[in-house]
Amino acid sequence: MHDYRSMVELLKEIQALEFGVYELALFLDTHPGDRRALEDHNRLVSRLNQLRKAFEDRYGPLRLDSESPYPYRYINDPWPWEIQY
Amino acid sequence: MWFYEKKLQYPANVRRCDLAMAKFLFAQYGGPDSELSAAVRYLTQRYTMPIPQAKALLTDIGTEEMAHWEIIGTLIYKLTEDATPEQLREAGLGDHFAQHDKALYPHDAAGVPWTAAYIQATGDPITDLHENLAAEQKARTTYEHLISLTDDDGVIATLSFLREREVVHFQRFGEALMQVQEHYQHKHIFC
Amino acid sequence: MTRAENMSKGYQGGMRLAEVYIPIQTYGETFDLKNALMYGTIFPELYRPYRPVHRNPQ
């Protein structure tokens, strides 16, 4: 149970970081020449990759193109709609 | 192509089972201004966009709408999780149960199934972007109606997030429309 | 272009009639990420929270 809560907390950190990345990406779609937004985007992407890797090492793959230990761990519960956040 | 990411865009919680609210939320799962309509609309229109900014934006907002569709599905799933057939019937979801049990079938709040007739792709980028501006406003209004129909703070927080995304998308589609209009003016002058 | 030329081309106040104009956002301050996710945007200037109309107590 303790591990479940820390899994959810880490997931929420990823959600916050990924939301920032997505929001800046939409901004960049219509502002491809905005250097400051691009730098902020790239900085968040690098932090997101680190955090995602930390999550996946501990709790299993978030994507099917992430490496998995044996047996294949991507399929494991809980799925996103089953989690109490 | 797409990869699924095993996570919601927003941490959607509900406080309790609320079948009436689940029924209302079908408006955004399979109604005219639903997240499903938004996703299919933008991902269909993007092929005939004339400039890279608009191709990218329709792809990325269309993809985000799929994530919103999943959030609405999660709310409905959680709100109905513990319900019995009798309770579903009392909440006006007896028709739904008869055909779909507790599956998340894409229909609107009144049970009308989703149809591609809810969306348009005219091949005229200016026209299509105007449709998208209107679609974002219609979805924002629907979220305001839905927020007024519940006192569950988990549902309200989630719907408020989705409503705010409509505001941001409106701004982005507006910017794309300005760029497409400019693109055609230059073309008109120099060609 | 003179004012008359502008008018004949359908311009008024630097803008073309029968055309939509939306200001292009400029990049400024952003919310911290935890709040941005709760608000639904990273941009303070686009944050338009909804205040629901209170229902009549029955």
UniProtKB/TrEMBL annotation, chain A:
One Pfam family recorded for the sequence: CotJB
Domain of life: Bacteria
The Protein CotJB domain, residue ranges: 9-82
InterPro entries named among the record's database cross-references: CotJB_dom (IPR024207), Spore_coat_assembly_CotJB (IPR016571)
Protein name: Protein CotJB domain-containing protein
TrEMBL record, chain B:
UniProt entry keywords in alphabetical sequence: Calcium, Manganese, Metal-binding, Oxidoreductase, Peroxidase
Record-listed Ca(2+) binding positions: 60
Gene Ontology terms for molecular function: catalase activity; metal ion binding
InterPro entries in alphabetical order: Ferritin-like, Ferritin-like_SF, Mn_catalase, Mn_catalase_dom
Enzyme class: oxidoreductase
Known cofactor(s): Ca(2+); Mn(2+)
Presence of keyword Manganese: yes
UniProt-listed CDD domains: Mn_catalase (cd01051)
Entries under Gene3D superfamilies matching the protein: 1.20.1260.10
Cofactor: binding comment: Binds 1 Ca(2+) ion per subunit. Binds 2 manganese ions per subunit.
Record-linked Pfam families: Mn_catalase
Classification via SUPFAM superfamilies: Ferritin-like (SSF47240)
Keyword hit for Cell cycle: no
UniProt: Mn(2+) binding residues: 35, 65, 68, 136, 169
EC annotation from Swiss-Prot or TrEMBL: 1.11.1.6
Signal sequence extent: none
Protein family: Belongs to the manganese catalase family.
Protein's recorded name: Putative manganese catalase
From TrEMBL, chain C:
InterPro entries the record matches: Spore_coat_CotJA (IPR020256)
Pfam family, one: CotJA
Protein name: Spore coat associated protein JA (CotJA)
